[in-house]
Amino acid sequence: MNNQPLLEDMRLFCAVVRTQSFAAVARDLGLSNAVISKRINLLERALQAKLLHRTTRRLTVTEQGDTVYQRATRILEDVDAMAQAITTHREAPRGLLRLCSSSGFGSRQLAPALAALAKRYPTLELQLELLDRPVDLVGEGFQLDIRVGQVQEPHLITRRIAHNQRVLCAAPSYVAQHGAPQSLQALAQHQCLVIRERDQDVGRWTLDGPQGPETVKVTGALSANNGEVVHRWAIEGLGILLRSTWDVGPSIAQGTLERQLPDYAQEAPVWAVYPTRLAHSAKVRVCVEFLEAWFRDTDLGATVRLPKPTR
Q: SS in 3 state form for 112-167?
């Protein structure tokens, strides 16, 4: 068996499983659906196993296919890590690096950084997906997640690459109509704009204050799974927002939002998160180190000088 075509067919198969679409993989690679189908058939023949059930409407993975996908993902990561380890000291990192992040941070902060990274390392292929939901890093085939907030998975490697806080803010029009909250618990009586995004604990806000961490249960008529949408609602005077300084800093500086309860904030660092199997990946290392330097040099989150707590 020729192992090189087998490895490439495994890559195609894993891509098809992740996207659940022959057409999407064909489009990404500039191939026809027929070529993708033929390559999957060759892989099934080589492994003597049925990997996919295909109909005109649906594509599902067989039990054997799921086993192959899990093992193939690990094999391909090991092959890539081996190649990177060999070339680390004599060449720039090369090959595909699949990243994910939330839509707001990914589009406004991460995308410019990756553009600069691509210019520095033209042999590195970067594929970014923006997802406002929890991500199974290994199961979905991502090598790196740039995450704002908390990391719950103890089996993943985490590296803090930037400082960030979430703060409470509201539009002057909201404060004029409803008044400003005088304590954290008073938020329960206000219209609060809830974000159902990544690590956010929906309806429960925990912030550090003069007496340490405090939690309040909040409610409101509006919620969304996208922070940019909720930011816009806050500017329109529809409620109080808990949002990262990298996002609301400019709005506070311009006066379209005003910080509420300035003695309170929620720590929400920016993390680089990746599987333990990629601990020695040159691609991951170079990307993480570059992003750490980028966010340090651009002073992430310092677009506005936030009031210092009086504690």
A: HHHHHHHHHCCCEEEEEEECCCCCCCCCCCCCEEEEECCCCCCCEEEEEEECCEEE
Residues whose CB falls within 8 Å of the CB of residue 214, separated by 6 or more in sequence, listed in order: 184, 185, 206, 207, 208, 264
**Structure token pair of residue 62:** 């067989």
Separation of alpha carbons 165 and 148, rounded Å = 10
Question: Which residue do the tokens 């992003």 mark?
Answer: 291
Give the predicted TM-score (pTM) of the model.
Answer: 0.72
Of 190, 191, 229, 185, nearest to 209 (Cα)? Answer: 185
The answer to whether the CB of 162 falls within 8 A of the CB of 296 is yes
First to last CA, the chain: 69
Q: What is the pLDDT of residues 158-215, one digit of tens each?
A: 999 999 999 999 999 999 999 999 999 999 999 999 998 766 667 899 999 999 999 9
